[in-house]
Amino acid sequence: MIPPAFEYVQAKTIPEAIAMLQQHGDDAKILSGGQSLVPMMKLRIARPAWLIDINRVSGLDYIKEEGGFLKIGGLVREAELEHSELIRSKYPLIHDTASVIADPQVRNMATVAGNLAHGDPANDHPATMIALSAQIIATGPKGERVIAIEDFFQSLFTTALGHDEILTEIRIPIPPPRSAGAYLKLERKVGDFATAAVAVQLTLDAKGACQKIGIGLTNAGPTPIKARKAEDFLRGKGLNEANIRQTAQFASEEASPGSDLRGPVEYKKGLAKELAARALSRSRERAGK
Amino acid sequence: MARKQTVHLKINGRDREAHVEPRLLLVHFIRETLGLTGTHVGCDTSHCGACTVVLNGKSVKSCTLFAVQVDGGEILTVEGLIKDGQLHPLQEGFKEEHGLQCGFCTPGMLMSSYALLSRNPHPSEEDIRWGISGNLCRCTGYQNIVKAVQYAAGKSAQTTARPVEQGVAK
């Protein structure tokens, strides 16, 4: 499959890329990992006239803790998260997520920022970043602005990013002690989108009750879903089996997946419930360690 | 017609250059422009891994990159595995352990395994299965492919362990 013809330019800096976006408007797309964009261009679903490659921009491949946040640069690849000791030891939810995205070759190219900026509710990081209460740093002609993750996903393939803005950093509040998370995903085969997947991040208090809770659902509606009812129910309560089951029930009620080749609605809601319960249990175990 | 661009890269140790349209996919650049047809086009949709090559040390699907993106890069394809007429331990492993039937997926399997062993020279069976999870074999020869990679890992381990053993023997 051959995409339609386009002009290709490499930006060496973010301001340069922004200037190119301003110049070419809606006809331009940013190319980072390209693992969603290139297939869409080959299928001619996406037909940008200009492709602005930001892979040569230096200094955007950091994973670091700074000023109370874990900061992930806009060009960090999924494979770098998968193999980062900091992520593995302290952010198990992100490690779980990065490890089950597509396959090793795709993870070597694909970026976390692209996974979010693409605005596809079937992608995995959106639910995870919702569970982690992440912030999106968008850089545009007037500089940086911070977007709360809850305000980022607006509709299918549409985010709060302006046409002349680039997602340059993801910020995650460093979790307090007794925090952990987990991502559980069911897929038909490696590389398929999730039939259902659930992201959980929680913090326990000294007595083992749930102090903070974030729950995100993948591929369960036109945008990634923050399971607020489930979160509100569990906050302040103990993580016993009955409460875990009830939280999972609420999460499943908040999911509104469509029927497709991956299964009917009832099946997917049932899966969301089971995966939520398992993700909660795993998070509890990890936080207790 | 979009402006053509010059792509210069090192492939299997050789410098090559060509003037190409931006929409030319890396896999077509390798196969048609450079004439290296060992890299295969399988599904053409980023699923099957038959087009896997090693780009700057990492395995990538060459059907999901444009050639212009890799200007200045270094690529290894299946043709670059053989050295001085000697099969690479992975190629030898695929031969010895019957790691191929029809052989269509083999170049991709070899390049994914090569990238895996570069990063993790002593993989467990699970590491190997994880490492080739982006490659499909429709003859379902996975069992023997895993054995082939284990063969290569074992062989490399012997080679690196030998001087130490000799040291101990003395």
Notes on the structure:
The complex is a heterodimer of chains A (289) and B (170). Chain A has 289 residues and is of the alpha+beta class. Chain A has three domains: 7-53, Uridine Diphospho-n-acetylenolpyruvylglucosamine Reductase, domain 2, CATH 3.30.43.10; 63-173, Uridine Diphospho-n-acetylenolpyruvylglucosamine Reductase, domain 3 (2-Layer Sandwich), CATH 3.30.465.10; 179-288, CO dehydrogenase flavoprotein, C-terminal domain (Enolase-like, domain 1, 2-Layer Sandwich), CATH 3.30.390. Chain A is 35% helix and 26% strand. Chain A has helices at 14-24, 37-42, 78-82, 85-90, 92-99, 104-109, 112-117, 125-131, 228-234, 241-254, 265-288; strands spanning 7-10, 28-31, 50-53, 63-66, 69-73, 135-140, 143-148, 153-155, 158-159, 166-173, 179-186, 196-204, 210-218, 225-226. In chain A, the strands form four sheets. Chain A has a five-stranded antiparallel sheet with strand order 4-5-10-6-7. Chain A has a four-stranded antiparallel sheet with strand order 11-12-13-14, sandwiched between helices. A three-stranded parallel sheet of chain A has the order 1-3-2, covered by helices on one side. In chain A, a hairpin with a 5-residue loop joins strand 12 and strand 13. With 170 residues, chain B is of the alpha+beta class. Chain B has two domains: 5-80, Beta-grasp domain (Ubiquitin-like (UB roll), Roll), CATH 3.10.20; 89-162, [2Fe-2S]-binding domain (DNA polymerase, domain 1). Chain B is 38% helix and 15% strand. Chain B has helices at residues 26-33, 89-96, 106-119, 125-131, 142-169; strands at 5-11, 14-20, 52-55, 58-61, 74-76. A five-stranded mixed sheet of chain B has the order 2-1-5-3-4, sandwiched between helices. In chain B, a hairpin with a 2-residue loop joins strand 1 and strand 2 (14-20). In chain B, helix 2 (89-96) packs across helix 5. Chains A and B meet through helix 2 and helix 6 of A and strand 4 and helix 3 of B.
